[in-house]
Amino acid sequence: xxxxxxxxxxxxxxxxxxxxxxxxxxxxxxxxxxxxxxxxxxxxxxxxxxxxxxxxxxxxxxxxxxxxxxxxxxxxxxxxxxxxxxxxxxxxxxxxxxxxxxxxxxxxxxxxxxxxxxxxxxxxxxxxxxxxxxxxxxxxxxxxxxxxxxxxxxxxxxxxxxxxxxxxxxxxxxxxxxxxxxxxxxxxxxxxxxxxxxxxxxxxxxxxxxxxxxxxxxxxxxxxxxxxxxxxxxxxxxxxxxxxxxxxxxxxxxxxxxxxxxxxxxxxxxxxxxxxxxxxxxxxxxxxxxxxxxxxxxxxxxxxxxxxxxx
Length: 311
Description:
Organism: Chrysophaeum taylorii
Number of domains: 4
Order of helices and strands: EEHHEEHHEHEHHEEHEHEHHEEHHH
Shape: elongated
Radius of gyration: 30 Å
Number of strands: 12
Family: Belongs to the SDO1/SBDS family.
CATH architecture of the largest domain: 2-Layer Sandwich
Pfam family, one: SBDS_N
Subunit structure: Associates with the 60S ribosomal subunit.
GO biological process, one term: ribosome biogenesis
Distance between the termini: 62 Å
């Protein structure tokens, strides 16, 4: 790798600068190298030379490099500059990076949120449209995850909110009452905001002395039941203009309420259960745990009959 003084002319380069020294790289390859997608240094650098000024073609001397980089090899110097130096790119390259970052942020927002109007995950294209409506620029200086959390907060007025997590508390029978009482719930299957997950885990461990565990059934619970329907405009206008106070419907009789009581359902396996006890026992079965693994892998669940045929 030549380091002596010479004059070299290069064009169409991405320059990386560190401690007054520069290397000439191919556009877009520096980002791939830093992310680990590219490992071959020859594919990143246009020429294996360290410069004082790439634009003018002034090559750095060996004594200057040894003084600053403490007798490192030429290849080690290039790697350090590429990994830790300041990337100087053209306006076109910067715009391409911002578009890629905008897409990455939109994908993360789509995966973590729920649309109040539908109750389901908003499409990535819709999230990108919302981000442009709020004039979000997606800077490349912050990670996509940091920006996604910021975008979610700013999209709440547009009906996009963070999807809750569906959790299952797995405990011994002797710990059941204490754990549920500490959580303030009646059923071991619950919905919580993602920011409350650590608090829930801490409460469960404290109430059960570490014997009970939390199992994540769904990182982003969605469905029609999560839809937030605004009141119809016509009905709202009629209610506002009416001088009569609204009439309350008569309370249902005990017999009719029993008839309308819905059975409990497992959203993973699709089975219906007549009592809470049967519903809880189902979550402990191998059939349910097998379907959870299939769901995480993106595969459809097995019916109870098919599961026992293959087991």
